[in-house]
Amino acid sequence: MRRVACGDKEAFTALYDAVVDTVFGIVLKIVRDRAQSEEVAQEVMIDLWRRATRYDPGKGSVHAWATMLAHRRAVDRVRSAEAAAHRDHDHAVRDRQRPYDDVAERVESRLQSQQVRRCMKQLTDIQRQAVTLAYYQGLTYREVAQTLGTPLPTVKTRMRDGLIRLRDCMGVTA
Amino acid sequence: MRVREGFHRELRKEPHEGLHSLTGAYALDALPPDEHGAVDAHLARCAPCRDEVAGFSATADRLAAAVRTPAPRGMRESVLHGIDSVRQIPPHVPATARPVTSIFSRIRRSGSLLVAASLVAGAALAGVAAWQYRQSTESQRQARQAARQLEDLTSVMSAPDARTVRGRTTNGASTAVVASRQLGRAVFVGTGLPRPAPGRTYQLWYDDQGTMHPAGLLEHDGAVAIEGDIGNATALGLTVEPDGGSSRPTTTPLMLLALPG
Fold this sequence. Notes:
Chain B: Keywords: Cell membrane, Membrane, Transcription, Transcription regulation, Transmembrane, Transmembrane helix. The complex is a heterodimer. By secondary structure, chain A is mainly α.
């Protein structure tokens, strides 16, 4: 990463190959439209190059940093598209707030990683729904609360508890 | 009295607890922008919260990796091509450095290219030094080098006999040279230098009665302490050379600036 920050294009190519499939995968999960996802993923990769000097190893791995930038940008894209749609009609929001069973269940069945699937099973229903709707659907915790018909404070704590369980189950060390 | 103390303790605790419960939503990007800012501010003060968020981010990274999807093939080429025209942002300037706004207001007030360039260069070097220091021990050497370079710049610029000349390159950049004959050293400042083509670099030359002596390489804008002693040089030249530089100029100079006597 230090080489990327010094403008080393070869090092950046290696970084590209290491993270691009995850970046594209998470963007596609949230944005859904393939052409738009490609656009967003491309912006993320160029942003990684541009901001390489700001990478702080104290805050986690390069991979996790790339994922975070990708997730944030995808969520921004969806939310700003929604805000635009919201002004005309409520269509986009309602579309994304389909009942849990419809959406989240399907997402989980497609998870490629065995470990993630196994650990997801150890969460309570509400924990799993809260984490999944927020991370894979890009909903805010208020939207999650609305969708699940659960009070706001409960959703906040379930997200945190869910992540704690996932973290411990996966043996993640930051 | 005891009740009141307890009450105050609760009051103090409450905002922290409230924000702390948001670390999960924060790591999942599930906060609206205003609350995101509040948690950011809280994280700056709360080390355990930062650790927790780091662990959650690593967990989220696994969730993302679980939905990994092969990226479209054409994307690789367009990204690698695209970055050629994208400039990397400079490293963070540490909190102790002059805030950016005051740098720019000083630039505006003085209207001086040189002051502007030296402040920016100084801040950038300080940033590089601080950033590299946090990396491995290997790069502490580089940090020391950067610090030394900054020292070189300041010693020339603050020399009692320092004099400045300004010029322009044929490719449109503003340049300035500060020279101290007493120290035998000079500093070059470039603003608006286009990035050299791949495999090329800018090279500085001291012109000593028509003989050009190599005086160091540079890749981009900024202030550099020119390598070597001014000696009897009467001008400073700038050319584009192959990477690594040349022993004598191989292209027409972009600039030949007469040095102060």
